[in-house]
Amino acid sequence: MLSVKKVESLSEVDVDRIIEMAWEDRTPFEAIKFQFNLSEADVKSLMKKELKFSSYRLWRTRVENCKTKHAAKRVSGIDRFKCNLQRAISNNKISKRR
Question: Which domain of life does this protein belong to (predicted)?
Answer without folding.
Answer: Bacteria
